[in-house]
Amino acid sequence: MDEQILVTKTSLPPYEDYIKKIRPLWDSHWITNMGMNHKLLEEKLCAYLQAPYLSLTVNGHMALELAIQAMDFPEGSEVITTPFTFISTTHAIVRNRLTPVFCDIKLDDYTIDETKIEELITKKTVAILPVHVYGNLCNVEAIARIASKYNLKVIYDSAHAFGETLNGKGIAHYGDVSIFSFHATKVFNTIEGGAVALHSKEMLERLYNLKNFGIRGEELIVSVGANAKMNEFSAIMGLCNLEYISENIELRRQKVQIYAEELANMDSIVVQKYNQEGVTYNYGYFPIRFLKKDIRDLVYNKLREQNIYSRKYFFPLTSDANCFEGKYNNLQLTNAKTAANNVLVLPLYPELNNSIIIKICKLIKEFSIL
Ligand code: T4K
């Protein structure tokens, strides 16, 4: 293939839309520190995500890091989480001086195995931090029951679940807080950006202080805080992209359907299923899992030779990251290890040409029988 096909491609609004909306910034010169576009995007996203309260941030990682910080857990407390995620999830726990306790996942949807959470709870456990990985929603009801039984907080990493709903309710409805990523690679982007969706006004205030140095007036600094605000250029990108979100998700759905049809009869792979009951998906990722050992890397390399850049999201497990060597539990993660060694995420974005999807599937069929 002449053209490089990458795992994803940033969705940009029409150039004129963006230029028109940023033009007034040259009059106002107000380009950050909670400008009018920041405010407007917060309002629109609150509505779109059905979130009671929402605070925009500079990226998804800081949304998560500050959401955890806002909970004010004692140093050294334990947080039960998944190792099958982007490294950000675990870094956010560790950077808050908390200990990640890794729980295995389910192989059918790659989310945390809720039946294995209770056995990991100790006197030090303060929270559960699951990830709606690839937009597959965790078993939120079961997790809520466990959290309530042991008085734990639930912090959802919803970086992959933008706009998804369960039984008509926005996914931010579940847990104490949910964070979203609006990175350039996501279904909805603000170039870089993120948000924390919350249920309480008090938490919203804390988040505000954490993302703006604790500044509440020219001479009033009420608490210690970082700088994690979203700027106006990003907020405007968000406002523009929000106009096209339904269209983009529908295009993604169509691409996924082609992948699913083309790969339907292969018994050597398991394809991502979009069939959780009551869920509306955003079709952010298309992962497949090879059942035969050592095939994933071979296919990954063969596709690269053809200029097709699939990705091994998520290898290595975060529990196996070099920087954590020997520090945290990384045993009894059998399913997570299987997923890390055998899952390949295929290119998927609204503009992806259907004929390229068919070509990718053809190559996968060829390479998988080598
Ligand atoms: N929690 C979870 C579960 C997450 O997946 C993430 C982020 C976070 C938390 C943290 O959220 P942020 O702080 O990032 O908002 C990418 C993204 O950088 C990262 O946001 C994402 N997860 C992760 C799964 O994927 P890389 O290292 O794979 O990115 P990179 O630069 O290799 O880009 C991947 C492909 O995207 C490229 O091959 C082409 C395309 N691309 C990339 C960029 C940067 C574009 O089309 N345009 C671009 O500007 O991490």
From TrEMBL:
Acetylation keyword on record: no
The UniProt record lists the keyword Transferase: yes
One Pfam family in the UniProt entry: DegT_DnrJ_EryC1
N6-(pyridoxal phosphate)lysine sites (modified residues): K186
Assigned keywords, A-Z: Aminotransferase, Pyridoxal phosphate, Transferase
Signal peptide residue numbers: none
Record PANTHER family: PROTEIN RV3402C (PTHR30244:SF9), TRANSAMINASE (PTHR30244)
Family the UniProt entry places it in: Belongs to the DegT/DnrJ/EryC1 family.
Name of the protein in question: DegT/DnrJ/EryC1/StrS family aminotransferase
Source organism: Parablautia muri
Source taxonomy: Bacteria, Bacillati, Bacillota, Clostridia, Lachnospirales
